[in-house]
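hi! just following up on the protien thing from before. the input was this:
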Amino acid sequence: MKNNFWLLLAMSVLAVGASAQGLNESAAGNSPRPSSTTCASTYTSGTGASFFQWCVTANGNIVSLQSPESEEHIFEGTVGEGYQICDFSNLIAYTDYAGAADTGNWKASIITQPNGPNTFPLNIKRTTADGKYTLTQKFSQLPADFTIKIATTVKNNTTGSPFLYLYRFADLDIDNAGSFSTDWFDQGANAAWGYLPFQDGVMLSSGTPGLFHSASVTSVVPAHCDFPSASTPAHIDGGVYLLHGFTAAPKSSTSFTVVYRRF
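and the predicted 3d structure came back as:
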């Protein structure tokens, strides 16, 4: 997405960013890790048409996805990919979309990667600055299918039962933004995707059909418990997001899987 997208975003996150600063200053324990577009682990397989490379930041953002070789779909312009926990009961958002939006109300990540960078297993855990929720992401891949899987767990550390939405968002610019300023986008019940006709595409889908979920195409970042959408099929400067919604039982965890696939 290009400049018009980010002008709309700036207005939507201004108030959230101001409140997040106060949370950072008062939070105890681990200091927050700033949002980042720097790759901490990179995974590469194949060559030419079978080439598949992607990378993840220390905060758990997939900021690059390249396949086939030399065809990048995320790391273009302002890089936006990541997650949001929306406490819908109180309309409080905890967001990290790498270069696109970061509310700053997270503690630093805890990375479990016993074999070192660029290896599996890779688990990234983050707790919100107020201590209410812990997000754990376990990354894996199926290179032959050009697929990334993110096994996601949200733990409610409180004694309440809030209704939560967990977003996964990606600003897509297919094939290095192609030869046009816009891509084509569409969506179904379980997935949303961006593509260039007769070329490549990227799909974001749910791997847990039994849990409430919804996939959408958007030209506006879903920044603060928002549900933006575009009429599809859409020929826009845009992105995709997937959300799972659930009532979080006290002191319990909810798990589901998010899947990226290049097609």
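The chain has one domain: 3-262.
Residues 3-26 form the longest helix (24 residues).
cheers
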